[in-house]
Structures are given as structure tokens and as C-alpha cells.
Specification:
By secondary structure, this protein is α/β, with parallel strands linked by helices. The chain has 12 helices and 13 strands. It has 2 domains: 148 residues, D-Maltodextrin-Binding Protein, domain 2, CATH 3.40.190.10; 96 residues, Periplasmic binding protein-like II (D-Maltodextrin-Binding Protein, domain 2), CATH 3.40.190.10.
């Protein structure tokens, strides 16, 4: 029934929404292994309350966001009890380490240092880099033909490094923030912007008549990170497998896509 309702919602979406690419980090050739859910009667999710739109408090003080909805959807799919508790960012990882929760869904980076303390599920969301141009230029923009073109970036970012490294013939225009760099495309000071696609998607949602994404997303773990995963304490394999299975199931049912488009109405994939 839930999948049918999502399909109905998709059919009623505007054409622009239907054309959007959606995240899909599930390996279609992998064998679906059903975990032993009897070993996981409940999951205590930890998060933070200062990372919109992933996890934050609304005007009533309620904890909301993409990560919060995702955690609850996983528990609904697994038919197990679920709690989501917010911690200050500087205390959240330590709380997981001290067994005050079973899983941390708050964008903890998958680094070597964190890997020595925690295990991680497969990524459920990557944060690619993307080009943005004016709408009229989107179809013809070719980053491999960037000689003489001005590319706006946020100063000091790995996206600026990407342009320096791979588009050496482009003219790099550095700005102190993403909105300033994107505004340079809007007013014609730059031919394109390259940067964090998620942040750009929010700007595009507010400037729909001006600009759009151009070309494909760039997924580079060495520059843009390994994406977002759920962290669990080392050795808590039953919890990790249950969450990974839940993520696979809500993607298959359409619930994941519904949540993604709810929080990211302009897809950044």
C-alpha cells in the first residue's frame, strides 16, 4: 500500500520532478541477506540538532530532518522500536562510543581515525560536485571546453582544487561563499559555478528561473568525501546489518525516494 501511494505521488509530480535523477547506492547484483532481527529488538539512534536539513529542531522544538525521517523509516520497515535522540555534535560520537546509543546518523565522516572507533553502513547519500550555469547555457555547456571561460567557486574548497587540477585552462573566480559564487553566474560575471551540489540545489530552488545544473554529478571520494553513512560501535554487526538491510528495503519500496524529494526538492544527483 505504501509503495502504491508513493507511485501515485510520483505520477502526480510535475514533469521537472519526474526528470530528476535520484540517489541509488544499492548494488542491484548483491544478494539480499536478511539479518537476524531477533538480535535487534530496538535501535537507539543518536543524531545532532544543528545540521539542517538533515537533523535540526523546528520552531516548536521538534527534532526533524532527512536523517531523522530516514532513521524512523528504517525502524518502520524493520518493524522494531526506534528512538532518535539529539546530542551536541562534540559529544555525539563519544556518546555512541560509551554505548548511550546504538547508531549515529549525523554525517560522521568515514575517515581512518573514525574507522578505528566505529563501523559504518554502506553510504546512503553521496555529496557530489556539480556545475551550475544559466538555463540557456545548460544544454551546450561542456566542461572539457573550458578554455577562456570563467568558473566561479568558493574560495579554499576542494571544488576549487578540482577546477585547478582538471580545468587548468579555465579562469578561476574565487568567492567567499557559495551564494556569492552562484550569484556571479546569475548576473553574468561567471560562465559557470562548480561546487557542492547539495548546497547549490537549495540556491537553485530559490532561483529556478535563472540557472540549473549542467552535466553530470562528479563523485570523487578523495576530494568530496565518502558520503553519509550510519556509524555503529565496532563489533555491533547485528545493528549494522539491520540498518543496511532497512536502507535497502526502503529504497526498493520507494520510501527513500519520497523522503529525499521531500527534503531536497531539486535533486543534486
Amino acid at each position: 500500500m505504501r509503495a502504491f501511494l508513493f507511485l501515485l505521488a510520483v505520477l502526480l509530480m510535475p514533469a521537472a520532478a519526474l526528470a530528476q535523477a535520484l540517489p541509488n547506492h544499492v548494488n542491484p547484483t548483491a544478494r539480499e541477506v536478511i539479518p537476524n532481527l531477533e538480535a535487534v529488538p530496538t535501535i537507539r539512534f543518536l543524531t545532532t540538532a544543528d545540521f539542517p536539513p538533515f537533523n535540526f529542531r523546528d520552531e516548536r522544538g521538534e527534532l526533524i530532518g532527512f536523517n531523522v525521517d530516514l532513521a524512523r523509516a528504517i525502524c518502520d520497515e524493520l518493524k522494531i522500536a526506534c528512538t532518535v535522540q539529539a546530542w551536541p555534535w562534540e559529544q555525539a560520537a563519544k556518546a555512541l562510543e560509551d554505548n548511550q546509543g546504538d547508531a549515529l546518523i549525523a554525517g560522521l565522516a568515514v575517515t581512518q581515525e573514525n574507522g578505528e572507533l566505529f563501523d559504518f553502513t554502506p553510504a546512503y547519500l553521496m555529496l557530489p560536485g556539480r556545475f551550475v550555469t544559466r538555463i540557456d547555457d545548460a544544454a551546450s555547456f561542456d566542461p572539457t571546453q573550458a578554455a577562456g571561460r570563467t568558473i566561479a567557486v568558493r574560495r579554499g574548497t576542494t571544488h576549487a582544487e578540482f577546477v585547478r587540477r582538471y580545468l587548468p585552462d579555465a579562469s578561476l573566480a574565487e568567492y567567499d561563499s557559495e551564494p556569492l559564487a552562484l550569484a556571479a553566474v546569475s548576473d553574468g560575471s561567471a560562465d559557470a559555478y562548480f561546487g557542492d551540489a547539495m548546497r547549490a540545489s537549495f540556491w537553485l530552488n530559490e532561483n529556478a528561473g535563472c540557472c540549473s545544473f549542467s552535466g553530470e554529478p562528479y563523485f570523487r571520494a578523495d576530494l568530496f568525501g565518502d558520503g553519509m553513512s550510519v556509524a555503529v560501535a565496532i563489533g555491533h554487526d547485528a545493528v549494522r546489518r539491520a540498518i543496511a538491510y532497512g536502507l535497502t528495503r526502503i529504497k526498493a519500496s520507494g520510501v527513500y525516494d519520497e523522503l529525499y524529494l521531500r527534503w531536497f526538492p531539486v535533486s543534486f544527483y
